[in-house]
Amino acid sequence: MPRNDDVRFISSSIKLPSFSPPDLHHPQPRSFFSSLQLNPSGKFAKLPFNFNFQFNFGINPQPINFITQFVRNQPIFRRNIKNGSFHTVFKKSPLFCSATLALSDSETGPASNGLKSGDDSESLVQYKGDGSGAVTQSKSVGSNRAAEEERVLISEVFVRNKDGEELERKDLEGEALNALKASRANSALTVREVQEDVHRIIASGYFMSCIPVAVDTRDGIRLIFQVEPNQEFQGLVCEGANVLPSKFIEDAFRHGYGKVVNIRRLDEVMSSIDGWYMERGLFGMVSGVEILSGGIIKLQVSEAEVNDISIRFLDKTGEPTVGKTRPETILRQLTTKKGQVYSMIQGKRDVDTVLAMGIMDDVSIIPQPAGDARKVDLTMNVVERKSGRGISGGGGISSGITSGPLAGLIGSIAIYHKNLFGRNQKLNLSLERGQIDSIFRINYTDPWIEGDDKRTSRAIMIQNSRTPGTLVHGNQPNNNGLTIGRITGGIEYSRPFRPKWTGTTGLVFQRAGAHDEKGIPIIRDFFGSPLTASGNTHDDMLLAKLETVYTHSGDPSSSMFVFNMDQGIPVSPEWLVFNRVNARARQGVVIGPACVLVCLSGGHVVGKFPPHEAFPIGGTNSVRGYEEGALGSGRSYVVGSGEMSFPVMGPVKGAVFADYGTDLGSGSTVPGDPAGARNKPGSGYGYGIGVRVDSPLGPLRLEYAFNDQGTGRFHFGIGLRN
């Protein structure tokens, strides 16, 4: 997040934390006032006492306490790879305030309590409260506590300024009068009830002090609340907010300029600032506020910057151990860096990123106060998997085989190492074998090249494969098996270049040729169509590859776009030179309980290319209702699909769909015109119904579709359509 350089964030003689009104329903067991005694010396004499009720707020937090407020309750991120759960604990600590409440009871007139004229007697009871609610009492003289509950008849109630004069602003006088509950004219009051009304006036937020004064008049006792209003808001100074947008502060205070500062409103603003940080998972809060002379409000914002990040390896029991992975390999995966304001959301993403390395079972981040008062140290606890290497097996389905008792079934075995040299580099040797298919692959991947700051990955691959040629050269008489053999080797580099966008470039050598069911190289099929572009038993080509991928998410309402381009490089006169482009797009839209998915793909080839590299049309991920490649095979193609899925029961969903595909009349331009020789229509559509079942592998799709020729067939697939 960019730092805020437009606002100077800077705490007055009057300090105002977030104001917490007193609990009027559960008053303190002891009164803040001494007992009330009325001994007037004359009809118009001022009563020999006054109540002094004044709040002095102050926020003066120790720097270390700010960080401690966030981390004392273990605000950690933890993600376990086994159950995928994510836990976070975070509590917002309130700001505390202290209040000083004093009552003085004095007599200045003639002796009325046995005192000589001119003598002064003063009693003082003072209570001081801290943030924990504890109250301490200092008392200079004794008083009759029982008199607290004695009621005194009040004839009039007024609100005046601290000098006893009328307030210039009648709206403030109205606010104070409206806050009163017990103090009404011609009512009998106790000291406690007067105290509670003083609380209410202060709690209205407009006044910094309130002193109740009782005066004996010929009409009875007049109760005057002498108040001191807050200053008018004239400006703002804010310190310490490096990531908080200046516009947010300006909007929060915009409607308060020229108005009397209201502590309640100020507390709401402070809460909104704290909320801004919490919504974004940032360690930040308002730690202090002051009202300076001239009506200037000064906010002190505290943001916890990351001081240090360390890696701690733990075993299954949670005890420290020695890790196999280099700490720098883990640290460079983190987007959280030193000097940044710590973000819990960013921390969660970092946990997910480290888990995505595939070599950890459990990852958690624990923030702790640093030696520097305004900074935080992060410790990432990681539990490595028992072994980063092993042997695995599995199975799958190949869409290129359309006949046989076990059509399309393949098995696989792999030997792998996921953490070579402790750098998260991966080596994989795999073999896949099916009824016709076979692929042997050696693959080495470095997910992040050392010394690169752009997260560039590198992959080196050597592969020997045999795949069915029925997609383009199907319908061989007597079910003669035609396979395409490829020997491939290459290197690719990939990196993210924008959010949700990745780019890949590489160089790949390929030698490809056709073979019959006995593995003998052939150059023509049964119909006399050539199987290679060069006329030899194999074609050689060196391809420069470029790919761009955009992904929004894996949800049904996600969007995806993929663009591929292969360019043949004429290293030798006999090597093939062609350009092939292919693009795919998918967009999902959720409409109530249903989801509409629209897919579009297309491509084109220019130059001399082998016929088996033509675009096949028809099949599970193309136009359903047709066998794989049975609709057409062309130099160009466009396929569009639309489907709507809806919930049926639990993880089961139903779907209706329709597809359309065409080779744009390019089937005859493919060398040998294999589509024309097999009477493929070149364009057509399909429609049908299906069932979707959510699984760890992705949506399992079972569908039945009809084509425009009036025939139908079942289709099975895994995952969303490409």
Automatic annotation (TrEMBL):
Gene Ontology process terms (BP): chloroplast organization; embryo development ending in seed dormancy
Taxonomy, superkingdom: Eukaryota
Cross-referenced InterPro entries: Bac_surfAg_D15 (IPR000184), D15-like (IPR039910), POTRA (IPR034746)
Keywords: Membrane, Plastid, Plastid outer membrane, Viral envelope protein, Virion
Domain POTRA: from-to ranges: 304-385
One cellular component (GO) term of this entry: chloroplast outer membrane
One family name in Pfam for this protein: Omp85
PROSITE patterns named in the record: POTRA
Localisation per UniProt entry: Plastid, Chloroplast outer membrane
Stated name of the protein: Outer envelope protein 80, chloroplastic
Organism of derivation: Sesamum angustifolium
